[in-house]
Amino acid sequence: MSRSSPHAVRIEACGCRTALGPAEATCAALCAGDRALQFRPVLGPDGGDRVPLAPLPGRSLAETAPPDWLPAVDALATEIPPGPWGTARHPVFVTSSNFGVGNLYAFQRTRQPAHLAHATPFAVVEFLRQRLGWGANVTVLSHACVSAHIGLLLASRVLAAGLADLALVFTFDFISPFVAGGFHALKILNAEMPSPYSARAAGSIGLGDGAAFAVLSRGPGGFRLSHQQVHNEMHHFTANQADGAGFRTCLAPLAEAAAGGRLWIKGHGTGTLEAGRLEAETLARLFPAAPLVSWKGSLGHTLGSCGLVELAIALAAIKSGRTPGSVGSTAPYFADTIAAESFANGGFDGVLLTSNAFGGAHAACLLRHD
Amino acid sequence: MPPASSVMIERHIHSVQLENPGTEEPDATRARLRDFFPRGSTRRMTQLGLILGRVLAELNPRPDDTLVYASTYAEGRALEDYLSSFPAASPTLFQLSIHPSAVQQVLIARQQPIGEFFPLTGHRQLVAHALQTALLAGAPRTIFCGGEERGTWLTECGVASAQTFAFAVALSAQPSGAIGTVRLVPDGGPDGALALPEFFALLLERRPCYQVIAPGLTLDLSWH
């Protein structure tokens, strides 16, 4: 059984930062075919194999205290509409997979106590809360690479219950040797560039920095999340059920909800083989007319932030009239719905956005617009 | 839409399961709780995974439950061991150190899918926000679970738990047969707090509670 939120929420504002810049710049660069990923040592200054990584411009994988990603967060925060964020009627939902774990890794290597002030989820969120002037009403969620989606879902639910006037969802994940070393140990972060949805001999992913926000309300019209869906297979930590049942369980209700509409799809598409095949085949069956794109072949996988980072890029794409293609992906593909090149999106009335995570976690939402 | 001041959310408590192993070491916990898990599945489980598995087993999670999980520090020991494994990072310890690994260890061992799963973290307002998440769920039954595991050198540094404990609470909208009631009342001041160990103590001692636990949120916990 999967679960969905029947409550539509309006997106009042949304923005992101990636290795290619803010949402609009990222969208334009993706449409131009730019690839942010570059081969870098997996353990930063400690060396190791060279793997595809896309940190923010100027960031290294040697974490500082305070973290060197703060300027990007500060810049992103200037795009958040002013408000009494973090008070009773204006809750904040912070989501991440890594939080300040880069500082924990740095502490373990250097024993510099300053890193400990940012090393736990609550400490780094408290640091951000004070820095950004939020009150204490900050809910913190962490569900690996579907973290941002469940933040959106919970914020929507709080709004629907009448417990808030506006909700701010804020997400961030910045790569470090901790996480790069882990994916490298799993052998999916390797010496190849990712090619999402490509049927090739070996799979690979890239990792990238990402941060994003969305302000949600119960208002009508505009850009809105009309349906949100989640499901957790709990079949294996790093594999899906082989028959694709997990993908179907999450996505079939959204196909029903979207019937009659004309969608394009921003998939999860990290570049792993089996998950990519199951995802592409399931989406092609349920949404046969919808072109499918992944942007992780350029930006890398921005981990827990990816759901909201890619929502911000999708909104920028709609506003610009052009959807970036699957940068870095090459034929043959797992399905004939894969869009390798950018395309005009004026004839579409919605976007399906999906993400997946460890444990067979699935999350998806339908973005509608007038 | 009702005005904010009228929105009170409430669920009835139908079961409370607790694990309070004190200073028991992980291997002793593994030996004590082996029978609660499928054969061979406990070898790589963390202590938090083991004790959460024990309390969740009593509630027999179902696909249509909503599961809400709260932990401030989560897998302290796995995190220590993973950090120590560099530069040859351990793939298993990487997976085990990622929030919400404890619940995933349990449900994967049981091959138990679940629809909604909200893993939360945080500190002073963690209980408030986890309870709010649980009380807003539309599922027939919501399981609110959580816990911590005691670390070693990370605890000495103040970045892992000093205690090991786990709890699971079964909640529903049905009052019949309930052993308690939990309400979140939207009033109170701009602050308020209730950390996870304090909530565990309330459950352990079956103590009622009426206090502001987050901005604008008052907890009303009563036992029948």
Task: Please provide a written account of the structure.
The complex is a heterodimer of chains A (370) and B (224). Chain A contains ten helices and 17 strands. Chain A is an alpha/beta fold and 370 residues long. Chain A has one domain: Peroxisomal Thiolase, Chain A, domain 1. Chain A starts with a strand and ends with a strand. In chain A, 64% of the residues are buried. Chain B has a single domain (4-223), classed as Peroxisomal Thiolase, Chain A, domain 1 (3-Layer(aba) Sandwich). By secondary structure, chain B is α+β, with helices and mostly antiparallel strands. The model of chain B is unreliable at 1-6 (pLDDT under 50). Classes of the chains: A alpha/beta (370), B alpha+beta (224). Chains A and B meet through helix 3, helix 4, strand 7, helix 5 and helix 6 of A and helix 3, helix 4, helix 5, strand 3 and helix 6 of B. Strand 7 (138-141) of chain A pairs antiparallel with strand 3 of chain B, so a sheet runs across the interface.
What's the quick description here?
The complex is a heterodimer of chains A (about 375) and B (about 220). Chain A is an alpha/beta fold and about 375 residues long. Chain A has helices at about 25-30, 70-75, 100-110, 120-130, 145-160, 175-185, 245-255, 275-285, 295-300, 305-320, and strands at about 5, 10-20, 20, 40, 50-55, 90-95, 140, 165-175, 205-210, 210-215, 225-230, 265, 290-295, 320-325, 345, 350-355, 360-370.
